[in-house]
Amino acid sequence: MAKRKHLKLLSDKQLEEVSKIKFKYGVFGKEEDDEEDNTPPNYYRQASNLRVSIENFTIDQEQKYARKNRSLEIPADVDYIQVNFVSQFVISKYFNDYYKKFGLEAINFFNFGKSGLFAVVNRDLFQIYLNEINSFIQFGLNINPDSKYDNYVTYVNSFKLLTAKDIIRFKVDEIGNVVYLSLVELPLASQLQYALIESLIAFLKSNSISHYFDKTVNRIELFDVSFEQVQLIAENFDVIQNVTCSLSSIVRPSDFNFVKREYGFNISNAADDLPLIGIIDTGISMDTPLKSITIQDDSFSLQGNPLIDISGTKREGHGTAVAALAALGRINHLNKFQGEVRADAKLLSIKLFESGKGYLSETQVVKMLYDAKSKYPSMKLFVLTICYDKFKAKNEPFSSYTYELDKFAHSTDSLIFICTANNINAVNENTDYDLAYFGSVHTNLSTPADSLNNVTVGAAAENLNNGPFYGISSGREFPTLYSRKGHIDLAAVFPRNKSNKNYFKPDVIECGGDLGFYNPTTIDYIDNSAMAVLSARPELGYILETGTSLSAPLTANLAAKILNEYPNINAQTIKALIINGASLNNIQFPKQVSHLLNVTAGNGFVDVENSLFSNENKATLILEDVISDTDLKIYPIYFPKYLLEDDLGRKKGLVKITATLCFSFEPLQNNQLSYNPIHMAFSFFKNHSADEINAKNDDFNSKLRSTLSWSQNGRNVSKPIPFSNSQKINFTIDLNHLISENQVLKLAIHCKVSTQIIGGLPASYPKQFPFSMAISIEENTKKKSGKLYDELLQINNLEVLGDIELEGSIDL
Fold this sequence. Notes:
The model is unreliable at 25-30 and 804-812 (pLDDT under 50). With 812 residues, the chain is α+β, with helices and mostly antiparallel strands. Helices cover 24% and strands 23% of the residues. The strands form nine sheets. A six-stranded mixed β-sheet has the order 31-29-33-27-2-34, sandwiched between helices. The chain has a six-stranded parallel β-sheet with strand order 15-14-17-19-20-21, sandwiched between helices. Strands 3-28-32-30 form a four-stranded antiparallel β-sheet. The longest helix is centred in the first third of the chain and has 23 residues, at 44-66. It has four domains: 3-34 and 617-800, Jelly Rolls (Sandwich), CATH 2.60.120; 44-167, no CATH class; 172-249, Alpha-Beta Plaits, CATH 3.30.70; 258-607, CATH 3.40.50.200.
C-alpha cells in the first residue's frame, strides 16, 4: 500500500462560520448540576461532623500557639482553614462573600473545587463564621430547633486548622538535601504576605540556611537543612502552604544478564539535519556509536559530565539506553542493529544525576531546560524518565514541578515525553496477570507524569523480539503490571451525571518489555520478556531492561519521525498525531475492570504507521488554528461522490473517522479544577449552520448519531468538571448520512474560559488559544477503492505536507 503524506486543512479557506457558543441547558434552562435530591435535608450527620471540627479546631489552635517561638519576632500570625464543602465551591459567586462576610480569603482549591484553603485575614469576622456554624450545630443536632444560622454554613461538611503536621509532608527519615517551601499567595492582603516572606528570608539568612526564592512559582528551595529547622519554620512562619521533599530516581526495575559483548554498528546518516531531542537523564556515554549524533556540549548538568554515563550497579548506564531508543527507534532495536543503522534524531545530554537517584532542585532542572531551549531554539522534543519515588494519592493536585514543566512546554512549543514510572512492587504482589491490581492506590503514577501539556507514556508488554512472546500480559499491546496508572478518579468526587471520559493519563503506551513466569506460580523480571538496549560500557555492549523508561523515548522517537516528515508543525500537532494513531483495538479488558482501561492504557498502543503516514484509502487531515473565548467555529468536510455511486460492499459504517484535539495552555496555580482554565470541545454534526447546531434538539437535531456529542461537556459553568486538553473520538458514517447531508459534515469546535478562578483570570492571560487536530478519514470496507485520499484532496481546501509518494511498508 502506497504511503502518502498527511494533508493540511487550510483553516482560513475551509472555515465557513464563526459564531458564539450557546449551551442547551435542558427544559428548564438550567445548567446540569449535581443529581437532584428532593428529600428534605437531614442535617444531623453534617452537624455532627461540624461539632467535631469545632472541637478539634479549638485544640489545634491552642497547640499551634503554644509551640510558637516568640523570640523570632515574626510580624504577624495567620490561621489557615481547610474547608471541605458539600459540593463544589463557586468561586465567581462566593469568593467575595467569604472575604467580606467572614474574613476568609481563599488561597487554594483542591479536590476539584470541593475543598479549599482559606486565610483568616479578619479574626472578628471569622468569629462570626464560627458562631454561625455553632448555631447550625444546635439546630442540626436538635439541641435547639429554633436556632437561626446563615445558609452559607449548610454547604460546609467539615473544616480544620492547618497545622505544621499538615504542612510538612514527609517523615523525619525522608528528608534529603533539597526541601521545598510552597508559599501562600494573598492577593487581597499582599502587604501581610510580603512582610511574612521578608521575615522568613531574614531568618534563613541569619541562620546561614542556603536557599533560593523562585518568585515565579512563589516557592523557596532549602539546601542541606535539618528536619528540626524545617519544623521550626513550619510552626512559626504562617506563610507556608506545604513543605515537601521528594526523592527522585531513574526508572529501572532490576539487573538482567548482558546479551551481547559488542555494538557492531555505526550510524550511517550522522551528518544529516535531524530533529534534536534533549535526554534529561544520567548522561550519554561517548564510548558508544551515539557519539556521532550527540551534540558535544557539556554545559547542561546538575551533577557530573553529561557526556559520561556511569549510573547503575555495574556502571552500565541508563541515559545511554534511553538516548539510543529515542534516536534509533523500534526498527533498529528489533533488528538487533543489523544492516544499515539510520538515526531519526540527534541528541543533547541534559544530566540530572550521576548515580540515578537523589533529591532534585526542581528550580535548577527547569532553568536548565529553558537554557537548553534558548541555546538550541529548534529543539522541540525532550525525554524525562526520572520521576518522584512516591506515587500520587487519588485525585492529588498538581505539584509545583508539574506546573513548571507545563509552563515550559506551553511557552516554548515543546513536548516532554514523561514515563509513568515503574511500580517495583508489582513483581512481588502478583502471581499472574491480574488487571484488578490497578485498583490499588499504590499503582498510581508519580510526579511529574500528571503533566497535561506534555506526553505521558506507560509501558506495553511488547519487547521488540521477533520470537515467541514470553510475557505474563494478555498480549503484546496490553499494559504491563509494573506500569503505573493515572491517579484521577472523577467518580469519587462528582455525581454520575458529571464526568469527563477524556480526562485521564497516560496518553499512550509503548513497548517496554514485560514480566515473565519464573515458575508456574512466581513472576519475575526474566530475560526472555525483557528488551535488549544499549549499554554505556563498550565491553558489555547490550543489556536487557524492562520499564516505562524504555517506552517514553520510543514514543519520542516517533515524534522525531513525524518532525522529519513534517518539520513545520506545532508541538501539539505532534501530540495529536501520536494519540490519534494509537489504538485500543487489541486491548480488550474484562467487563469488571473495563473502567481501568484508559487509566492504564491511555488512548492505546502506539502505531507508528498510523501516526506518520496516510495512504490512498485513508487520509489524515491536520488542522492548526486559534480560537477565542465563547467562539464556535464551523469547518465543512466534503466527501467524494464515489462513496455514493460505487458499490463498496457495505452501506452501514461506510467511512470511519478518528479525530483528536490537542492544545497547550498557561496553567494556573492553587486551583486544581481550573489548573487548565480553557474548555475546548469538538464534534462532527450534520450539514447544519452554527445557529442550528446551537439550537435545542427539539428545534434542530444536528447530531449524526445519538451517541455522538461534544468531546467534553462545558455546560456546567458555575460547577464545572475539569477540562481535558487532549480529546479523541471515533465513529462511523453510513451511506444514508452522506446522502441526507449532501456529502457534507460539519466539524464544530468551541471554546469557553472558566470563571472559577481565584481573583479572576489574570489580565495578561492570552485572548486567543491555538489548537491542533488530527482527523483520519478512511474507507471502512473490505474492498478498497484507492480513491479516497486523492478525491478528498480535490474537493476540500487541503495541501499535501510533502509531495513524495513512498512505496512499501514502514520501518517501525
